[in-house]
Amino acid sequence: MPTAAKLVASVWFALAGWLAANAHVPALGENAAVGLFRELTALIGFVCGWRVMGNGVDKSYADSVGTGLKTSIILAFLALLLFSGHQMVKEAFRMHFDGPMQAMLGWADLMMKNAVRMVSVGVIGVLIIAGLLGGPLTEWAWRRWR
Hints:
0% strand; elongated; 5 helices; transmembrane helix; TrgA family protein; single chain; mainly alpha; transmembrane; TrgA
């Protein structure tokens, strides 16, 4: 059911996803085609805010900080999963893998490599600050507009 808290959380974490993706773009390199990277990460943040943070209200403000950090972690994991999967499919069409099992292992390998590239002050900082502020903000919105 739509609530004000879910709306606030989804907009907040969509913004966090866009900012984190924007902070990650320099790590991709100069020749990397960014395309819809920022927008898709914002969409993932929107869904995570709605489903995870929006449903994690009706507790204390301290608990909402933990739920906000959990939402940021899920956002980062789902973005890694989606974009590494897309990268794996592109490599599979180039016949980089011998079979489907090697492609799945390649997906996990790409996730690890992309996670290492993602670890930067900008990306981690955005995700931590978004979680620390987004949780109490969503809890406040839930209490304000029940």
